[in-house]
UniProtKB/TrEMBL annotation:
<feature type="domain" description="PPM-type phosphatase">
    <location>
        <begin position="4"/>
        <end position="245"/>
    </location>
</feature>
<protein>
    <submittedName>
        <fullName>Serine/threonine-protein phosphatase</fullName>
    </submittedName>
</protein>
<dbReference type="InterPro" id="IPR036457">
    <property type="entry name" value="PPM-type-like_dom_sf"/>
</dbReference>
<dbReference type="InterPro" id="IPR001932">
    <property type="entry name" value="PPM-type_phosphatase-like_dom"/>
</dbReference>
<dbReference type="Pfam" id="PF13672">
    <property type="entry name" value="PP2C_2"/>
</dbReference>
Amino acid sequence: MLRSMEAAGSSGKGRDRETCTAAFSVSAVHAAVAEGVGSFSGGAAAARIAVDVIPAMVSSLVPERHSGADPADARAASTRHVRMAIRHASGCIAEESSRDAQHRGMSATLAACFLLGGALVVGHAGSSRVYRVREGELTRVTADHGFTVFSAWRAPSTYSVTTAVTRALGIRGHAEADVAIAEALPGDRLILATRGVYNVLPEVDLLRVVNEHPTNVQRAAEQIMAAVAAWPEAEDDRTCVVASLR
């Protein structure tokens, strides 16, 4: 049974960006990352709403212990509560978008993990990802909501890769998140990353950095950000969280 997580995150601005539109939040029972879409101020606000509102609502909905509850019922309740929290945050983002002209059209992608009833509940929408590291191997837990776009960058033989998202919080009719119980064990580590991380840093390098810091999640997250920043392609805002499950 999973009881807690040690998690730490780090964010970085893309080149020539004044405001970082990616955000994260962590606690002993959750980790979340979000990437804002829209204007710089609107995107930053949307990402912040996502990573703050969702954990707060999950905490208010789910009791600390599912005492006496059937495990299957407890897990079903956990996924239902996470889904409700994501929908609520999506509504908050949409409301802010309609209220403030500077935030018009803002939205956010999301990847979030919660320890509820001894299980790992994963919710995600858009292109933010969750990876699991076990016994030195990396496995992607989530599947992107979107399609890949290749475009020329600086030279005809060099290409950048972006993901056109088809789901995001704050967009009515396109905000539904995937929420499910993910297979996980004590000792597993998680990487939550926005596309500004994995579009630049190959998965083999994500794994290498995490394996180099097996007991220091803060250092691992910071080194991932440093590795991304060293690439000339690092033009997008980005954030990541590294978590160790207990």
